[in-house]
Amino acid sequence: KEVKLWGGRFEESVTDAVERFTESISFDKELYKQDIMGSRAHASMLAKQGLMSMSDRDSILQGLDEIERSIENGEFVWRTDREDVHMNIEAALTDKIGEPAKKLHTARSRNDQVLTDFRLWCRDAIDKIVARIRHLQVSMVILALKNEGLIVPGYTHLQRAQPVLLQHLLLAYVEQLERDAGRLLDCRARQNFSPLGACALAGTGLPIDRFMTSDALGFTAPLRNSIDAVSDRDFVLEFLSANSITAVHLSRLGEEWVLWASEEFGFITPSDSVSTGSSIMPQKKNPDPMELVRGKSARVIGDLVTLLTLCKGLPLAYNRDLQEDKEPAFDSVKTILGMLEVSAEFAQNITFNQERIRKALPAGHLDATTLADYLVKKGVPFRTSHDIVGRSVALCVSKGCQLQELHLKELRTISPFFDEDVYEFLGVENAVKKFSSYGSTGSECVASQLDYWVTKLEIK
Ligand code: ARG
């Protein structure tokens, strides 16, 4: 058995079970690129500071290049007995270039190394997620552009409430996604600080330059406190929190589209390319991708809860428990990327059943609130007008008709404030036209929202 990199004081090697239980190479090899980047920056800094010769640095840099290539070719052999990604790469470098490699771990611990890798990885992951959020936003705006003027029932309590423009409703999701991206970018700015050089926890007496490595790796600055640098995982907790909120937004979108695709709603028809069938019921065509978007949000939330639970009992500084931080983060990122991709594809592959939606619009007295506003314009206090319209709706319910089908005579038996012009406010088409407040579903307001997004998202 090979002697461990930390093997000096040990007389016995670890048991096979302990080796299998404590390894992290099976998952942290995901960090190889960031680990190599960190080592390049560290070696260059050590040479500049006179802690290794320029020629040692050059052979380290060359060796790292070769290792990176062999990992990418799939030729590199990851060894469980070398525990984690850091020791696998360092030991492979020693195998390759010999003595100079032994200087690489000067003024560095795996504790600051793993965090350097992990922060770089999260930064990269945030950029990928934000790009997919943008893509979904664009898909939603394009879907809105395709359905200009379409009125749909707006719901509260899943009961018909007021008529809204479909564009308005789709743009509500675009707004949510904008905040999701904003949260990720805030988190990115807060997490982009360098732990490298914090060493095990206390820093070092060797003359390193943490600002140099921080710059080389694109961090804003080195973290101020070495103990904090190796202890906390709040940067990834914040990241997974942001992912969880995005996942909840996508899950709600999934729920909405699953409902809309049902026979009962019948608002949308997903194309075959985003639907799946049943192994027993030949007629079935199910919106499974959006059901799974809803379902997979559970994993993203679970990943956050795993990490919160992992951290809650730990004293300063590094504890081995923290090795368990990576898999939830990897899973959260992989899952949210898939959810965003499939949601965008779904948005690109649904058609709104305009005729069917139009036919269903008269149900549910969607124009009742607009009618109450009509009376307010006539000088009736809102509470009174609410009551008058409530009684008008009750009359409709008893007659089985819509508000616009009541005769003026009938309306006047309820209130003398009703006039001939009331019919300009009734019916969903008329009702929608009456909205004018900032952010409302009025067609001009929605058009200006749409313009805003078309410009902001650079949609041609
Ligand atoms: N694989 C470890 C992790 O992911 C690296 C740090 C190990 N440090 C240590 N002192 N054992 O956290």
From TrEMBL:
Keywords: Amino-acid biosynthesis, Arginine biosynthesis, Lyase. One of its GO terms (biological process) is L-arginine biosynthetic process via ornithine. Residues 366-433 form the Argininosuccinate lyase C-terminal domain. Pfam families: ASL_C2, Lyase_1. Pathway: Amino-acid biosynthesis; L-arginine biosynthesis; L-arginine from L-ornithine and carbamoyl phosphate: step 3/3. Its EC number is 4.3.2.1. Residues 8-302 form the Fumarate lyase N-terminal domain. Belongs to the lyase 1 family. Argininosuccinate lyase subfamily. This is argininosuccinate lyase.
